[in-house]
Amino acid sequence: MSDHRVVVVGGGFGGLQLVNGLKGAGVKITLVDRRNHHLFQPLLYQVATTILSTSEIAWPIRRLYADRPEVTVLLGEVTGVDSGAKTVSLRSGMTLGYDTLVLATGATHAYFGHDEWEPVAPGLKTLEDATTIRRRVLLAFERAEMEADPALRDALLTFTIVGAGPTGVELAGIIAELAHFTLPKEFRNIDTRKTRVVLVEAGPRVLPTFAEQLSAYAQKALEKLGVEVLLGKPVTECSADGVQIGEAFIPSRTIVWAAGVTASPAARWLGVAADRAGRVVVEKDLSAPGLPDVFVIGDTASVMREDGKPVPGIAPAAKQQGGYVAKVIRARLSGKPAPAPFKYRHQGSLATIGQSAAIIDFGRIKLKGWIAWWIWGLAHIYFLIGTRSRFSVAWSWLWIYLSGQHSARLITQRETMREEG
Question: Which end of the chain is more exposed for a tag (fewer CB within 10 A), N or C?
Answer without folding.
Answer: C
